[in-house]
Every structure is written in structure tokens, then in C-alpha cells.
Design goal:
Strand 4 (68-75) and strand 5 (82-83) form a beta hairpin. This protein has 114 residues and is mainly beta. Strands 1-8-3-6 form a 4-stranded antiparallel β-sheet, with no helix packed on it. It has a 4-stranded antiparallel β-sheet with strand order 2-7-4-5, with no helix packed on it. It has 1 helix and 8 strands. It folds into 2 domains: 1-37, no CATH class; 43-113, Jelly Rolls (Sandwich), CATH 2.60.120. 11% of the residues lie in helices and 36% in strands. The two termini are 36 Å apart. It has one helix at residues 24-35; strands at 43-44, 52-55, 60-65, 68-75, 82-83, 89-93, 98-105, 108-113.
Length: 114
């Protein structure tokens, strides 16, 4: 018994729908989507004074490492911040989410778009 694999990247010879020719724009979209082609490279975040706030310009995640961080707070509404309980790690972000980092020794921060 064979099963259909739904989540694979199409090859160029596969039709996207019956009776149609492949449209290269859609073919490339599905290839990038299924193969995990990143939208852009990671971006180093230029950290200002403590507490430092970073607002995500797009969906992705922030990696915080090193330094002497006392707390990391998260906000989606820009009015209410929540203590994450972490001082380093990976923080998922939607567009316009805010991370507020309080430190005495400057950490390293990188944004990775998804």
C-alpha cells in the first residue's frame, strides 16, 4: 500500500495542478517554502544602553548570548512587558514584538528572520 507524501518540494517536471504548465514563480515559491530557503541572512543587533529594547521588523527570532544580563522582558502590545525568566537563549518574535534586555555587561544579540 503506498501513501501520498503531501509535504515535499515539487520538481520542475511535476505539474502544480492537472492540465496546466508550471508557472516558474509558483514553482520557485513552493521550492523555497518546502526546502526552507531563508528570507535573508541573520542580522547583528547594535545594542544601546541598558535597558535596551529591540523591536522586530519581521517574523523571526532573537538569539541573546554572553554578557551579564539580569532580565529579558517580552511585549506584543508595547504597553505590557512580561518577564521571560531567561537571561540568554532563543526568543521567537512576530513583526513588531519587543524584547527589553537589562544588562551590566553587554550581551551579543542576533536577529534571524524566518
Amino acid at each position: 500500500m503506498s501513501t501520498t507524501q503531501f509535504r515535499t518540494a515539487p520538481t520542475f517536471t511535476e505539474q502544480l495542478s492537472e492540465g496546466t504548465r508550471n508557472n516558474s514563480k509558483w514553482y520557485r515559491y513552493f521550492q523555497q517554502n518546502e526546502l526552507g530557503t531563508p528570507p535573508s541572512n541573520e542580522l547583528a543587533i547594535n545594542i544601546g544602553g541598558s535597558p535596551f529594547s529591540y523591536t522586530a521588523g519581521m517574523k523571526g527570532f532573537v538569539i541573546i548570548s554572553g554578557g551579564t544580563v539580569s532580565n529579558v522582558m517580552f511585549s506584543r502590545t508595547a504597553g505590557t512587558f512580561y518577564l521571560t525568566g531567561q537571561t540568554a537563549g532563543v526568543f521567537p518574535m512576530a513583526q513588531n514584538d519587543i524584547l527589553k534586555v537589562t544588562y551590566t555587561g553587554k550581551p551579543s544579540m542576533v536577529f534571524v528572520p524566518t
